[in-house]
Design brief:
Blueprint: E1 6-10, H1 16-25, E2 29-33, E3 50-53, H2 58-67, H3 71-79, E4 84-87, H4 89-94, E5 95-99, E6 105-106, E7 114-119, E8 130-136, E9 140-147, E10 152-156, E11 161-168, E12 171-179, E13 182-185, H5 196-210
Parallel strand pairs: 1-2, 1-3, 3-4, 4-13, 5-7
Antiparallel strand pairs: 5-6, 7-10, 8-9, 11-12, 12-13
Length: about 220
């Protein structure tokens, strides 16, 4: 019997419960992270096979990461190669550069692991939320995607693979990307009944573990 993957889901704010339930449906063991779990440089997070940053309010989440002393340990895990998936606000936290809806640069706490620039609330207000179906590279076609006050990737570096695009306010733009073990989406797959995106992330986590990946 294959041992279950152990995934840590950041649970400071936002849709962390939905991610936890989806990952559990995929057969993973899940621990919600609200504070450091140990005294190591990785705050005990090194015991996980992967980490998930949920949707929510990115400025609030960033502030709480600093207050709870989780920002640097999360960044250290990502730099060590541990797979990390961020949806919506989680995408914003992962990006190297962040801008507001008008394109102005913002300085907010973030991990900066993904070589990309993201625009917050690019699709507009809550009333502008929408659902669509996407072809997502590495996952499948016809993937259900929920966009809620969604961010939009404005630009990304050469090591970032674009998995899916959507026609938005800036034209045809990336909404799902991967950079090695870093996976990010503008949309919320956890708010659907489709497990395929989380299974894709778990496949990345399993490959990292099988290759002897660890934080050290």
């Amino acid at each position: 019997m294959v041992e279950s993957l152990h995934i840590g889901v950041l649970a400071l704010q936002g849709a962390f419960r939905e991610h936890r339930l989806m990952l559990e449906k995929c057969g993973a063991k899940v621990t919600e992270i609200r504070r450091p779990l140990g005294d190591s440089p990785w705050a005990g997070l090194e015991s996980f096979d992967g980490l998930v940053l949920p949707g929510g309010e990115s400025t609030t989440m960033g502030r709480l990461l600093v207050e709870e002393k989780l920002l640097e340990p999360l960044r250290a895990c990502g730099l060590a190669g541990m797979p990390v998936y961020g949806s919506c606000a989680g995408l914003i936290l992962l990006c190297r550069e962040v801008e507001g809806p008008d394109g102005d640069s913002l300085d907010q706490p973030r991990l900066g692991l993904l070589d990309a620039r993201v625009r917050r609330n690019a699709f507009g207000r809550q009333v502008d939320s929408f659902e669509t179906r996407l072809d997502v590279g590495g996952v499948a076609g016809d993937v259900e995607a929920v966009f809620i006050r969604a961010p939009l990737i404005v630009s990304c570096g050469p090591e970032v693979e674009v998995l899916s695009r959507v026609e938005g306010p800036l034209g045809l733009s990336p909404v799902a990307v991967r950079q090695n073990g870093i996976l990010a989406t503008s949309f919320h797959p956890e708010l659907t009944s489709d497990k395929r995106f989380h299974e894709f992330f778990l496949h990345i986590c399993r490959s990292w573990r099988s290759a002897g990946g660890r934080c050290a």
